[in-house]
Amino acid sequence: MFSSRKGRLCQTSALFLRQALIKRTASSRRVFDGETGLFSVPVQFKNTKGDIIQLNAVYQDTMPGGGQRATVFALHGSPGSHADFKYLVKELQANRVRMILPNFPGHGLTPNDPRLSCDNEERNQFARAVLDSVDDIRSTDLYFMGHSRGGENAVQTATLELQSGNVRGIVMLNSAGLRRHRGIEPYWKIEIFVRLLDLRVINFILHPFLYFVYNRILGLKVPTGSAAATALRTMRTFALRRILPCVEAINQHSEVKFLHVYSGDDFLIQPDISKEFAEKFNDRVDLECSSTDSADVTRSTIEAFSKGVQTVSVNFVHEGHFSQKYRAQFLIDVILALISLNSTAVESTKMSNKVHKTYKL
């Protein structure tokens, strides 16, 4: 009995210390750019070697004053930034849906640290550090979203948050599957470039070269050569099949809805790889859209979720890599529907409990 009381005391103390740290971190938030709703906050996390990394994370908060009915925590691709989701912000904000959009270290806004290896463990720790820094973010339902390289991190971070009981949905857009896609092939070239970057001796040549490759050849915008180098580093640290434990965890939480979106004309990720990944989710409906009009697939997606289906996987057959831009209205409508469905379910549960208690009396 003494040991169990001691254990509960330790857990209570740990929770108190964590809440105190979060409160102290949140109070140190500074305005980075008031016009765009960018904030800077000091965060602390560990790299793969166990070193403590401290830096000022820059993120966008679309409703810094609170008042939201739900929050979407969205993680950008690599290269990328909070602006990857700008096509969703305005209408979600108008419907009282708050978006928290962190900028990963070294991608242009949040400063880099040379001790970072850019693997998923570090990136997930950074994401959770930002999550902890935001006031009242866990007071409402949480939805995680990730585009491209950020998709794995959205899934992994959401899985780590499942125990909080606030996670209601995950949206994965044009993200990696369980095996290497064409965007990271041939893999040996990436490995060689990263090793050369680690030497740092010829970075004055490599950085401008990578800047040119990303901006002019790949058509992926990067602000600097250093940001291009960081983006390249993240290409060798995909989880791939190591994401499967997270998939299993999601399958076991039927209350968490999963929207998986991919494209048939994605120049980085083959559709068969995305389809293979989707097949790992148990309670699933697969949809295809060949039209430029999203009305029908939007209706089918919402109907599937409203009938209790946990996962909907949508293939936009003729779309490219940026579904959050070209299918923004589809995403907005589905996200708002999921939030409404969850609110209705919560109210129904409350009414059921109330009726049950009245009957007992």
UniProtKB/TrEMBL annotation:
Record Pfam families: DUF1057 (PF06342)
Recorded superkingdom: Eukaryota
Entry protein name: AB hydrolase-1 domain-containing protein
